[in-house]
Amino acid sequence: MKDEPVNFPPFPPEYRASGLLLHVTSLPSSYGVGDLGSSAMSWIDHLHDAGQSWWQALPLGPTGYGNSPYQPMSSFAGNAILISPDSLISEGLLAKEDCESHLPLDFVDYDAVIPFKTRLLETAWKNFKAGGRTDLQAQYEMFRSEHEHWLEDYALFRALKAKYQGAYYLEWPSELVERRPQALAAARRELANEIDQVYFAQIIMFRQ
Q1: The domain at 19-207 falls in which architecture?
Q2: pLDDT truncated to tens, each residue of the chain (208 aa)?
C-alpha cells in the first residue's frame, strides 16, 4: 500500500491564542508613518506584556495608486517607506540632521511621506556607495544574488516607473511594454544607479 502524506493541523487541538491586527504604518512615528524601528519593537513588547501571542501586520509590499497594502506592486519586495530612519542613523548611513521633518503625527500624509522617505534613502545610498559601512557590501552582493529571481525585474520596473513619472506601465514605450531584449538592456544601462538604489533599499528593508 502506497504511503500517503499525513496532514497535521498547524496547532494542537487545545491551542488557543489571541492577538491584534495593526499595519506597520499605523505605529507612532516622528517621521510621518510607522516603520520597522523602535516603535515596532516596543509594540511587540506591549503585546507580550498584555499576554498576546500574535501580531497580524497585513501585507508589507510596495504600494501603488491609493497606497493600499492589498494592492502591492510586488509579491516579494518590501515597502521602502517602512524603513526606519532611526535605524539608518544608528547604522551610520544617515546623520540625524538628514531626518528632520515636520510631518503630521496623527495621520499619514502619503504625498509628503513618500518623497521624504525617498530622499532619505537616496542620501543613505550615496553614503553607502561612497564607502559608508563597507562591511555591508558583502551582504548587499549576497542579497542581490539570492533574490535575483525577482529582484532584477522588480528593480528595473521601479526605476522605469520613476523615469516615466509613475505612469501605468502600458503607457510606456512599446518596446519596453513588450520586453524587447535590446530595449531592456538599454534601460538597465541608462538606469543602472537607480536600479542599484532599489537593490539597496530592499536589503535595508529585509535587514530591518
Answers
A1: Alpha-Beta Barrel (3.20)
A2: 566 676 767 888 889 999 999 999 999 999 999 999 999 999 999 999 999 999 998 899 999 888 998 999 999 999 999 999 999 999 999 999 999 999 998 999 999 999 999 999 999 999 999 987 888 899 999 999 999 999 999 999 999 999 999 999 999 999 999 999 999 999 999 999 999 999 999 999 999 9
For the record, the C-alpha cell of 49 comes out as 506584556
Burial string for 173-203 (b: 16+ CB within 10 Å, else e) reads eeebeeeeeebbeebeeebeebbbbbbbbbb
How many Cβ atoms from other residues are within 10 Å of residue 73's Cβ? 16
| Domain residue ranges in the chain | 19-207
Place of cell 552582493: 141
